[in-house]
Amino acid sequence: EVGLAYGVGASAGIGMAKDLASIIIGMDPMNNEAIWEKMLKKTFWGQGGGGIFSAAMSGIDIALWDIKGKAWGVPLYKMLGGKSREKIRTYASQLQFGWGDGSDKDMLTEPEQYAQAALTAVSEGYDAIKVDTVAMDRHGNWNQQNLNGPLTDKILRLGYDRMAAIRDAVGPDVDIIAEMHAFTDTTSAIQFGRMIEELGIFYYEEPVMPLNPGQMKQVADKVNIPLAAGERIYWRWGYRPFLENGSLSVIQPDICTCGGITEVKKICDMAHVYDKTVQIHVCGGPISTAVALHMETAIPNFVIHELHRYALLEPNTQTCKYNYLPKNGMYEVPELPGIGQELTEETMKKSPTITVK
């Protein structure tokens, strides 16, 4: 899975994957390390990094590990070192869109709606949730253009009231992750972070853009909530400054954009050296979910798994044969060979065919 289906860049990601595939034709798929290095160093642009390049590498690398697991008849996690845990604690993610299955998502506006979405998730067995209470205004419009510099009292109060309504509804024993999507700048991230400290926030995600590690450090120094980020940080080299400056308590690499299984396992091990925990970012299809579960059961420094609101939508769940879902907020890891997931025949029939030469 080239994890660029949302946002802008899907066609570029597929085009890059095609170009990269052309240089590894004839190589042994079992040699994932050699293939990864060739894609990085024999392409000129690879050593400059970037999301498009990294995501294309990710899709190819995941396929290599799937081939290896199926050839050997073992699930991915066994090739990564075996299980560190039997069950995977999971949180319900992006509750600003409501919660539940179906073919659509909501745009919540009032604090009471946020509280109800949280209660719905908790009633299904989740003891942790994630929500962005600042991204949308009271009319359900995206706020991101208005979140730079000192925030108005109106924006701050609405975001706080939504978060407080959730805490009041679910009580003290449910963990709340405050999502910011990097819409806020350093000043506004510190403003809002200080306001919600008293609500007992589990961690504060992407309070600022990940392009400047120094900005993240400023927020970490001035807000008494653990910080998390990583869905737009790529490769070991991207994570290095954040680990060295200690700004992030939780790293969130996306296996489908960060270089695949080969690279993300190294990033997780690197984070362990700095006493940091890992929550794999999951905002893609069923393949993304499957590979994340394998990684998270294998690594010792796992913290929690993300079940995104999008993962429950029918167009997403119907692309693959297996619809893995948690029970009472806990996942079990796929035991089928490889990543434990397959595209359906219908998905393959309606998808375009690309020939690599």
From TrEMBL:
GO terms for molecular function: lyase activity. Pfam families: MR_MLE_C, MR_MLE_N. This is Mandelate racemase/muconate lactonizing enzyme family protein. Gene3D superfamilies: Enolase-like C-terminal domain, Enolase-like, N-terminal domain. The keyword Lipoprotein does not apply. SMART domains: MR_MLE. Keywords: Lyase. InterPro entries: DgoD-like, Enolase-like_C_sf, Enolase-like_N, Enolase_C-like, Mandelate_racemase_C, Mandelate_racemase_N_dom. Residues 111-226 form the Mandelate racemase/muconate lactonizing enzyme C-terminal domain.
